[in-house]
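Class prep. Write one:
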Amino acid sequence: MKKPNVSAAYLHRVYSSDEHLINCAYSGLFDVPLDDFYHVLGLDDVMTFGAASYKIKKSHTHNSFVKFMESKNIYEIFKEINKSPINNYKNVFHWLNSIKKLKKSADIIKDKQLNPFRGQKNLEARLNLVNPKSVEEFKQNLVKRTHRDSYPAPCNVYTEIAKIINNYNQ
């Protein structure tokens, strides 16, 4: 499903109250691109997966993370990463929802367009639509060591995330 492009200004308005989440999302999306998955995911799914996968990769020893990923199918990977406790939050969606600000009516409308699957309980069916070759490549990227030891986000991380996501939408 093609979604509207996302702007750096929109990302900044909606997510700017927690730079740590944004930097983690950027680092996670840099390490594990989700371009072949974006048509079955919403923006919140992409942002949370990027942040959570990066945080988990940084907190586990590499070998245990690899072993965990090898035994999982794509749905189990998303489910496990998304439900893992992050910082002081129950899971990454709680983290995201605690900082997400939708003040303008235009942002609320855009949020619905960027997250067309919100509330649906069919993630497994949607993920099964992804090309199996893309899933294998995704899993290989996911178990590679992270390229980042800290959060050296670009000067304007919102612009960089917008570029990544809009590239998914091509």
Observations:
- The radius of gyration is 15 Å.
- The chain has one domain: 8-168.
- Residues 27 and 150 are 9 Å apart (CA to CA).
- Residues 8-168 form one domain.
